[in-house]
């Protein structure tokens, strides 16, 4: 009984923290993300390759140790999507009359084919399936695309009220989510919620790559749930509370590959039949070989996927598929396009944290293999010079954290002025909007007959996109061209000598 | 007073009356100041310049020479103080109005009996992620709040479209509702170098009360800056030339000891927005005729850039 309560409390806390992570300000998000996301399987597995650090290594060791010791406790205690599904299950059980779960036949072929394909695609450098199915990234997108806009909308409506009392608060903004990306998120959100309401944790035991991987190694778990035939009164209470549907009452077995360690069965069993105990080699369960079959299928799938992944032709084809005609700009810290697309799990935490909302989910811009990975949308916004939050919150290391001073010199694109469109060159009228907003003094003005003509010095340009955003002409007379590989910009040095004007005597006025 | 000024006033009155309701209402409510905003009452100076002091002492002396704040703010009126908070810069960078000056002005408004004093600026947005950064970094948010001003966030986008009577290029503008709905409008620009308009002073500062800023840039910055003044001139312009950014404007250097800032310790006050711009141009070390919008505004009789025609009072502390 107590373990269930702890689980419910803990997983609710984790889920709440995830919602806070996505809704909070930049500073809170930065500190929260490093702690919270060091204990999520997929981000940690990617980050251990992309940007290993103490916390990441500790996180991975912790996750492996608790999994090997206690089974799939990750799925019930730490996984935000698991918490979301548990909420939907609890809600549906409260609302509907039919309250019982029942044993579900395993679908090992489907399950391990999905895992094999995911692993194969991931190893060959395309995260598309992993990104779509990873429980953390999925939750991130659901919070970012569904919950955050509603929250911000309510907040913005609410701040209208204090205005009557002459109290003015700053509005909040949400990122623009391309309709197709939104449709994908909504589709996943509603189908997972419905699936869990009707079939419990079916997603976790058929689709989720983390669940499948943990299922594959479940033979090694030290603590397991065991069903003692001798004490069982066949009351079936355990079956009716098992969200994973992994307790088979007919031959009295528990399918450990699918058990999500929710502790419901232990609490429900009136006899001392179901126990959670130290059981390193499970000799008792030889009769029904679901585990063995799963293990064989899983191993075969893994072997197949590795073979596929290291086939050069497959890799080349996938990389070519990812490269669209004109790849978009990647955020500072991404280093280069290829690295970024190979490490980003499209959780959209950066999209949510980005204060200017220049980071926007892509759809096909990175090619089909980079589905949903964020891009710098200079049509809509610009990259704030005084900000490095995306690298600080990125849980996978796809965007490396940069010190603000370093980030200010990372060139992600290059601006170009088109003199045949620019109003100053065409109409000989002052405009200068681009220079006004340029943070690096890359745009300077040449004075000809009191008209100021803009010029770009690309050695200072970092490609933040501010100039493109303010340029008043249609089409834009100044455009940032994305760079595949980021470059180092030159720091603008102000003249050491202050500008000297003839100093007037102290009491003198020039009129 | 010159003939030019007289005809100007007549024209202005005509336009004001033809606007009907609004102007009539203003007269009935006992605010003829609004219609005569440009001309100083008899015996009082057209322009005041004070130097060699701190922002607060400079202002206090300046407003005294202008006849006191009661000339501009009557008991129970609402006031909007519009500094330049356009850039996410420390006040030392001189890209934004001096916070102490803003604070002193707000206090002076309340002392004159103002009911409410608002402070806001439409931040040049693609310079900072959040308008709040500009409000905070410049020190103006804190300073204004200390003086009990209501600091209005700029992303509170409540703009109304207005016609510009006689605008050459700018025919309509979307003006912030605070400017339209408050009784007194005090313009508090900072004098600084500007990369695309040469200088940013009082007229340029009015780009911070409108929304269609990009239309200015697209159709002719100088002419639009001048045209807007045909719609509404501030009741009082106070130019902050305490620290003056001499190059790399309008954003300048975001450091505590910028190399392009000169300490001039001067402030200018005037009802005439063109005159105050002309005087500030001289303070900067240039000639008013060189600045496009000043020349245009003078030609459109928005104000007078010929400083020798004006009653100027100077004072060195």
Describe this structure in words.
The complex is a heterodimer of chains A (511) and B (317). Chain A is mainly α and 511 residues long. Among the domains of chain A are: 2-105 and 137-163 and 180-202 and 216-286, no CATH class; 411-505, Alpha-Beta Plaits (2-Layer Sandwich), CATH 3.30.70. Helices cover 47% and strands 10% of the residues of chain A. Chain A has helices at residues 2-23, 26-36, 41-50, 54-70, 73-78, 80-95, 108-123, 128-133, 135-158, 179-199, 202-206, 209-216, 237-241, 264-268, 290-309, 312-322, 337-343, 349-353, 389-393, 404-407, 423-427, 433-437, 466-470, and strands at residues 223-227, 247-248, 253-254, 274-278, 359-361, 374-376, 410-417, 443-448, 451-456, 478-488. In chain A, the strands form 5 sheets. Chain A has a two-stranded antiparallel ribbon with strand order 1-4. The longest helix of chain A has 24 residues, at 135-158. Chain B is α/β, with parallel strands linked by helices. In chain B, the strands form 2 sheets. In chain B, strands 1, 2, 3, 4, 7, 8, 9, 10, 11 and 12 form a 10-stranded mixed sheet that branches. Chain B has a two-stranded antiparallel ribbon with strand order 5-6. Chain B is built from 13 helices and 12 strands. Chain B is globular. Chain B is 35% helix and 21% strand. Chain B has helices at residues 3-18, 21-28, 32-35, 55-65, 99-111, 131-137, 140-146, 177-181, 202-205, 213-219, 221-228, 273-284, 292-299; strands spanning 47-51, 78-83, 116-119, 150-151, 159-163, 172-176, 184-188, 190-194, 198-200, 236-245, 261-270, 312-316. Chain B has one domain (37-316): Rossmann fold.
């Amino acid at each position: 009984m107590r373990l269930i309560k702890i689980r419910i409390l803990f997983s609710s806390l984790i889920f709440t923290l995830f919602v806070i992570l996505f809704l909070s300000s930049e500073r809170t998000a930065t500190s929260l993300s490093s702690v919270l996301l060091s204990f999520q399987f997929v981000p940690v597995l990617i980050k251990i390759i992309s940007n290993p650090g103490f916390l990441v290594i500790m996180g991975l060791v912790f996750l492996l140790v608790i999994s090997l010791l206690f089974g799939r406790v990750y799925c019930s205690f730490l996984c935000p999507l698991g918490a979301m599904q548990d909420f939907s299950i609890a809600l549906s059980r409260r609302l509907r009359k039919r309250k019982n779960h029942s044993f579900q036949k395993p679908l090992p072929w489907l399950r391990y084919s999905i895992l094999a394909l995911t692993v194969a695609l991931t190893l060959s450098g395309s995260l598309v399936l992993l990104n779509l199915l990873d429980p953390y990234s999925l939750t991130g997108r659901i919070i970012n695309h569904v919950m955050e806009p509603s929250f911000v909308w309510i907040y913005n409506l609410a701040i209208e009220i204090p205005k009557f009392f002459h109290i003015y608060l700053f509005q909040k903004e949400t990122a623009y989510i391309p309709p197709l990306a939104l449709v994908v998120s909504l589709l996943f959100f509603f189908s997972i919620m419905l699936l869990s309401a009707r079939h419990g944790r079916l997603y976790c035991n058929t689709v989720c790559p983390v669940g499948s991987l943990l299922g594959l190694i479940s033979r090694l778990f030290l603590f397991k749930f065991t069903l003692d035939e001798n004490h069982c009164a066949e009351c079936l209470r355990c079956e009716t509370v098992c969200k994973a549907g992994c307790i088979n009452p007919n031959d009295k077995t528990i399918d450990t590959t699918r058990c999500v360690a929710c502790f419901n069965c232990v609490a429900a069993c009136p006899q001392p039949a179901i126990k959670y105990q130290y059981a390193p080699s499970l000799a008792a369960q030889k009769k029904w070989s679901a585990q063995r079959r799963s293990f064989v299928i899983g191993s075969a799938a893994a072997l197949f996927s590795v073979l596929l992944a290291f086939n050069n032709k497959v890799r080349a084809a996938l990389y070519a598929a990812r490269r669209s005609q004109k790849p978009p700009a990647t955020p500072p810290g991404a280093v280069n396009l290829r690295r970024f697309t190979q490490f980003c799990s499209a959780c959209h935490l950066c999209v949510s944290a980005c204060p200017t909302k220049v980071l926007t989910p892509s759809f096909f811009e990175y090619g089909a293999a980079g589905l949903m990975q964020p891009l710098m949308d200079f049509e809509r916004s610009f990259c704030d010079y005084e900000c490095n939050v995306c690298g600080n919150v990125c849980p996978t290391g796809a965007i490396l954290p940069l010190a603000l001073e370093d980030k200010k010199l990372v060139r992600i694109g290059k601006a170009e002025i088109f003199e045949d469109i620019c109003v100053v060159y065409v109409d000989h009228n002052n405009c200068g909007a681009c220079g006004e907003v340029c943070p690096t003094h890359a745009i300077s003005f040449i004075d000809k007959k009191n008209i100021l003509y803009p010029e770009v010095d690309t050695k200072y340009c970092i490609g933040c996109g501010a100039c493109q955003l303010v340029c008043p002409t249609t089409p834009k007379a100044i455009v940032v061209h994305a760079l595949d590989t980021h470059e180092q910009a030159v720091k603008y040095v102000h003249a050491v000598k202050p500008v000297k004007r003839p100093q007037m005597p102290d009491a003198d006025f020039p009129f | 007073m010159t003939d030019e000024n007289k005809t100007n006033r007549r024209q202005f009155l005509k336009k004001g009356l033809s606007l009907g309701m609004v102007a009539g209402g203003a007269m009935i409510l006992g605010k003829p100041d609004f219609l005569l905003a440009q001309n100083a009452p008899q015996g009082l100076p057209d322009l005041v310049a004070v130097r060699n002091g701190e922002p607060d002492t400079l202002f206090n002396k300046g407003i005294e020479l202008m006849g006191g704040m009661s000339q501009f703010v009557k008991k129970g009126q609402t006031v909007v103080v519009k500094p330049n908070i356009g850039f996410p810069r420390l006040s030392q960078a001189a890209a934004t109005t001096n916070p102490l000056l803003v604070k002193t002005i707000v206090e002076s408004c309340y002392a004159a009996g103002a009911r409410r004093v608002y402070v806001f600026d439409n931040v040049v947005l693609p310079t900072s992620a959040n308008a709040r950064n500009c409000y905070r970094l410049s020190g103006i948010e804190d300073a204004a709040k200390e003086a009990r001003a209501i600091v209005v966030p700029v992303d509170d986008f409540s703009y109304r479209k207005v016609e510009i009577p006689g605008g050459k290029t700018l025919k309509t503008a979307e003006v912030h509702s605070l400017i339209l709905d408050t009784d007194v409008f005090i313009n508090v620009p900072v004098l600084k170098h500007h990369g695309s308009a040469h200088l940013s002073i009082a007229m340029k500062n009015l780009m911070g009360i409108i929304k269609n800023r990009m239309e200015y840039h697209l159709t002719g910055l100088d002419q639009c800056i001048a045209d807007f003044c045909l719609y509404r001139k501030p009741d009082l312009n106070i130019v902050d030339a305490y620290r003056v950014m001499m190059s790399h404007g309008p954003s300048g250097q975001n450091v505590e000891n910028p190399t392009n800032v000169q300490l001039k310790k001067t402030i200018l006050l005037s009802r005439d927005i063109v005159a105050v711009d002309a005087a500030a141009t001289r303070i900067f070390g240039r000639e008013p005729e060189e600045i496009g919008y000043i020349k245009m505004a003078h030609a459109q009789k928005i104000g007078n850039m010929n400083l020798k025609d004006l009653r100027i009072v100077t004072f060195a502390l």
